C-alpha cells in the first residue's frame, strides 16, 4: 500500500482517519459508560435531515447538518431529563430521517451523491477537512483536560455529582455538542449510517478487559487507530467500501473479544 502514499488524496484520507480514530477512541469510553450509544445513533442519523436540507436550499450540506444535529442534540438533552432518552431519541431518529426524505423529494434534481453522505467517501477528504479536524481535536482535548475530573465524576455517579453542586446539565450539553461536531465532521470518512458504530466499538471492546478508565481510554485510542488502518488496507486490497470495511472489522473484533473474555 506504500505506493499509494504518493497520492495526496490517500495521504489526506490516512491523516484524517488517524485524527478521527483518536477522537473516537477517546470519546468512546464516555459514550459507552454513560450509555449514550443510542444518542450517537440519533444524532448521526439526524445529519441525514441536515444534509438533505442543505441540498434543498443550496447550502453547504455539512453546515446545515451541524445546525440540524445541534438542534436535535438540544431537544434530546432538554427532553431526556423529563422522560427516557430512548423514547425521545427514537422519535427524533425517525422524524429527522423522514424530513430528509421529504427534503430530497422536494429537490427534483440534484447533483450530490447522497450515498457518499450515507456511507462515506474517504478519498474525498481535503486539506481543509484535516484542518477542521485538527482544530476540533485540540478543542476537545483542551476541554477534557480542564474538566476531566468533573466529567469522570458525572460519568460514574450523576446523582452524587448533582448533589455536590456540579452543573451536570451544562457538562452533559457540552458533551452532546462535542459528539455532534465530531460525528458531523466524520461523515465524509465513515458515513451517516456507520459513524455511530465506529464511536461505540473501541470502548465496548476494551471494557471487556480493563477496569481502569485510563487504560480503557488509552487502549480504545490505540485499537481504533489499528482498526482504521486495517480497514483502509483491506478495502484497498479487496476493492471494498472503506467505511463499511472499517466498521465491519471493528464489529468482528468486538464479538471475538466478547467470546474470548467470556463476557456479553
Q: Please state the structural category.
A: mainly alpha
Spans of at least 5 consecutive residues whose pLDDT stays below 50 are none
Return the average pLDDT rounded to an integer. 83
- The N- to C-terminal Cα distance equals 36 Å
Number of helical segments with 4 or more residues: 11
Helix content: over 70%
Strand content: under 5%
User: What is the CA-atom radius of gyration, in angstroms?
Assistant: 18 Å
Q: How many strand segments?
A: 0
User: Which sequence of SSEs, written as H and E, runs from N to C?
Assistant: HHHHHHHHHHH
Would you mind describing this structure in some detail?
- The chain has helices at 8-33, 37-57, 61-80, 85-106, 114-119, 127-156, 158-163, 168-190, 195-206, 213-238, 242-261.
- With 264 residues, it is mainly alpha-helical.
- Helix 2 packs across helix 8 (168-190) and helix 10 packs across helix 11 (242-261).
- The two termini are 36 Å apart.
Brief descriptors of the model:
264 residues, mainly alpha
Produce a short descriptive summary.
This protein is mainly α and 264 residues long. Helices cover 80% and strands 0% of the residues.
Task: Set down the secondary structure blueprint.
Elements: H1 8-33, H2 37-57, H3 61-80, H4 85-106, H5 114-119, H6 127-156, H7 158-163, H8 168-190, H9 195-206, H10 213-238, H11 242-261
Helix pairs in contact: 1-6, 1-8, 1-9, 1-10, 2-3, 2-4, 2-8, 2-9, 3-4, 3-8, 6-8, 9-10, 9-11, 10-11
Amino acid at each position: 500500500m506504500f505506493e499509494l502514499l504518493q497520492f495526496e488524496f490517500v495521504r489526506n484520507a490516512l491523516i484524517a482517519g488517524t485524527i478521527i480514530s483518536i477522537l473516537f477512541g477517546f470519546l468512546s469510553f464516555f459514550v459507552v459508560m454513560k450509555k449514550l450509544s443510542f444518542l450517537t445513533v440519533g444524532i448521526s442519523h439526524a445529519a441525514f435531515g441536515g444534509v438533505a436540507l442543505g441540498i434543498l436550499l443550496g447550502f453547504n450540506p455539512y453546515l446545515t447538518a451541524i445546525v440540524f444535529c445541534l438542534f436535535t442534540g438540544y431537544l434530546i438533552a432538554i427532553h431526556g431529563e423529563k422522560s427516557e432518552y430512548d423514547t425521545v431519541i427514537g422519535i427524533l431518529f425517525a422524524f429527522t430521517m423522514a424530513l430528509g426524505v421529504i427534503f430530497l423529494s422536494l429537490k427534483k434534481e440534484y447533483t450530490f451523491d447522497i450515498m457518499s453522505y450515507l456511507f462515506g467517501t474517504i478519498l474525498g477528504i481535503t486539506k481543509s477537512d484535516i484542518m477542521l479536524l485538527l482544530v476540533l481535536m485540540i478543542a476537545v482535548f483542551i476541554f477534557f483536560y480542564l474538566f476531566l475530573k468533573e466529567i469522570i465524576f458525572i460519568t460514574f455517579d450523576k446523582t452524587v455529582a448533582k448533589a455536590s453542586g456540579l452543573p451536570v446539565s451544562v457538562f452533559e450539553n457540552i458533551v452532546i455538542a462535542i459528539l455532534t461536531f465530531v460525528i458531523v465532521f466524520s461523515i465524509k470518512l465513515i458515513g451517516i449510517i456507520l459513524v455511530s458504530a465506529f464511536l461505540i466499538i473501541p470502548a465496548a471492546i476494551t471494557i471487556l478487559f480493563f477496569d481502569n478508565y485510563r487504560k480503557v481510554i488509552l487502549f480504545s485510542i490505540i485499537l481504533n487507530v489499528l482498526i482504521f488502518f486495517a480497514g483502509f488496507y483491506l478495502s484497498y486490497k479487496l476493492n471494498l467500501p472503506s467505511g463499511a470495511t472499517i466498521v465491519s472489522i471493528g464489529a468482528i473484533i468486538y464479538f471475538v473479544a466478547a467470546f474470548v473474555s467470556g463476557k456479553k
